[in-house]
Design brief:
about 375 residues; mainly alpha; Rhopdopsin 7-helix transmembrane proteins; about 65% helix; disordered N terminus; disordered C terminus; GPCR_Rhodpsn_7TM; transmembrane; membrane; G protein-coupled receptor activity; transducer
């Protein structure tokens, strides 16, 4: 939940706001957390940090080490896991320390750097989820499966570059930053500067609102297509054959059975992406609203409960990074199947092969181990 925090400024001045380093007085009037809440938030955030770090490291290693896992969708998911892992390494520990001490102790320079890294990783995560959603839409609605592993890697490079463009101004002090006395991380604070407002609005649009609306549109289109196809199937007898299904446009005319299996797999994958989208919305919509209200509302930013509100929303944001790898394991069979040990694979390799069957050149045969006999020869 990083961003920037502008200093308190006089509301009647028309000049550009200038950041002010927090004084002992300002720190004293910035309420923190009571001891019970400190313990609670510290335990919760420590658990989230460990799960997010361990889970996403495992996902990245699975895709990196096994060529069979390097499909386009898995490469994108691995990149999403990498962004979550970086968030757990470069942001969560410092937020945890600040929650425990209720004071930012890492200095102004690292405040700017951590703000840039935070938005770099969260924008990247949203962009990858957007790409996956559009890919599912093209496959299920438009019947176009054009995303290859090479194209997925190219899109990953592009999204990292764009994420860096939008987040890098925070590291160089544009808008200008200060050490936050009122939140567990460098968060957007109140400002009367129109340029500051414009940057926050652009960042929120790029990070949340535009991806959310596009993903919502794609998911509505996919759900409508699935419902429409289900109705068309149910309107025919249960004994409908492949040729009838093909006439309904549900299967490919050239390879109906293969297409049926493939579309079923793609639809199941869509359900997984829908779950990821739901978690993204639940975890980040409150934070987005909080950032906008903080930027435009002097009264909200100076509420006595601001540090507590910031902490609640902070661990909710980080919760997404911990839930994602659990969803991969729960929903994606390939991630579950990796658990076979090397010894089990060796046992499979050392199993004796079954004798090869020699099929007679006739149309009506039956099996009698170890041979196949033709009815006309009996």
């Amino acid at each position: 939940m990083e961003g920037v925090s502008m200093a308190n400024m006089s509301l009647g001045s028309g000049s550009s706001p200038q950041p002010v380093a927090p004084t002992e007085k300002s720190l004293a009037i910035a309420p923190g957390l009571g001891l019970p809440l400190q313990v609670f938030f510290s335990l919760v955030m420590a658990t989230i940090l460990l799960v997010a770090l361990a889970g996403n490291v495992v996902v990245c290693l699975m895709v990196y080490q096994r060529s069979a896992m390097r499909s386009a969708i898995n490469i994108l998911l691995a990149n999403l896991a990498f962004a979550d892992m970086m968030l757990a390494i470069f942001n969560m520990p410092f937020a945890l320390v600040t929650v425990m001490t209720t004071t930012w102790i890492f200095g102004n320079t690292f405040c700017r750097l951590s703000a840039m890294l935070f938005w770099l990783f969260v924008i990247e995560g949203g962009a990858i989820l957007l790409i996956i959603s559009i890919d599912r839409f093209l496959i299920i609605v438009q019947k176009q499966d054009k995303l290859s592993p090479q194209k997925a890697k190219l899109l990953i490079v592009i999204t990292w570059v764009l994420s860096s463009v939008f987040s890098s101004p925070l590291a160089v002090g544009s808008p200008r930053l200060q050490i936050p006395p009122r939140a567990p991380q460098c968060v957007f604070g109140y400002s009367a500067d129109p340029g500051y407002h414009a940057y926050v609005l652009i960042l929120m649009l790029v990070f949340f609102f535009i991806p959310f609306l596009v993903m919502l549109y794609t998911f509505m289109g996919i759900l409508n297509t699935i419902r429409h196809n289900a109705i068309r199937i149910h309107s025919h007898p249960d004994s409908m054959c492949l040729s009838q299904a093909s006439k309904l446009g549900l299967l490919s005319l050239q390879k109906p059975f293969q297409m049926n299996i493939d579309m079923s797999f793609k639809t199941r994958a869509f359900t997984t992406i829908l779950i990821l989208f739901s978690i993204f919305t639940v975890c980040w919509a409150p934070f987005t609203t909080y950032s906008l209200v903080t930027t435009f509302s002097f009264g909200f930013y100076h509420k006595d409960s601001f540090f507590q509100i910031s902490t609640w929303l902070l661990w909710l944001c980080y919760l997404k990074s911990a839930l994602n790898p659990l969803i991969y394991y729960w929903r994606i069979k390939k991630f579950r199947d990796i658990k076979y040990s090397q010894s089990e694979r060796e046992k499979m390799k050392n199993r004796p092969e079954l004798p090869e069957l020699q099929v007679p050149a006739c149309g009506h045969c039956f099996f009698q181990f170890p041979k196949v006999h033709c009815l006309s020869n009996i």
